[in-house]
């Protein structure tokens, strides 16, 4: 069964509003989780590394004030897209490391559409 | 992390073996070869990984050349559900290391 869940699976919001996406590790306490973004017909792009109890590490070019990441517990990381615009419309995916250390488990993704 | 090169797309007949190649000529000695796949509108799924020996699990086989500069993922009996984008990734195995995706190979399994 799924080991990483995301909520919501899809969301439509109006331009200028903020949207929060939740990522839960269902069977394992994850001190580190990852957030990706994927535009249509493109590969996944890593946005940031979410660290429990500390600040997230953002990849170059990702606006940390626009994409707020909170990892307040060992099973939950959240991504908030602030003041969303149509260009933020994308498929957002989170992941965590497997207990074996080698594989990563990915959530089912959240489809965000900003109108 | 080393760069990988994969064909953009491939077709495979249902029931036949799908052989997906990957070039990683700049791979370092401590870097592993990982394969993931992503079915349309879903999150990626781990398939298999290896260092230098050939590996097999319930999903696929991984063949790594002796010089480790290339590898092949083999799906022995492809089904329509194997239609997906397959990503070959080379990275050092660390507990909390991020995974960087390239463009991958879009595999279409044809009836």
Task: Summarize it.
The complex is a heterodimer of chains A (115) and B (111). Chain A is mostly beta strands.
Instruction: Say how many strands of chain A there are.
Output: 11
Quaternary state of the chains: heterodimer
Q: What summary fits the major beta sheet of chain A?
A: 7 strands, mixed
Structural class of chain A: mainly beta
Alpha-carbon Rg of chain B, integer: 13 Å
What number is the mean pLDDT of chain A? 93
For the secondary structure, the number of strands of chain B is 9
Structural descriptors:
heterodimer; A: 115 residues; mainly beta; four-stranded antiparallel beta sheet; 11 strands; 52% strand; B: 111 residues; 9 strands
Task: Give a structural overview.
- The complex is a heterodimer of chains A (115) and B (111).
- Chain A is mainly β and 115 residues long.
- Chain A is 0% helix and 52% strand.
- Chain A starts with a strand and ends with a strand.
- The mean pLDDT of chain A is 93.
- Chain B has 111 residues and is mainly β.
- Chain B is 0% helix and 47% strand.
- Chain B is built from no helices and 9 strands.
- Chain B has strands at residues 9-13, 18-23, 31-38, 45-50, 55-56, 61-64, 70-75, 84-92, 105-110.
- In chain B, strand 6 and strand 7 (70-75) form a beta hairpin.
- Chains A and B meet through strand 4, strand 5, strand 9 and strand 10 of A and strand 3 and strand 4 of B.
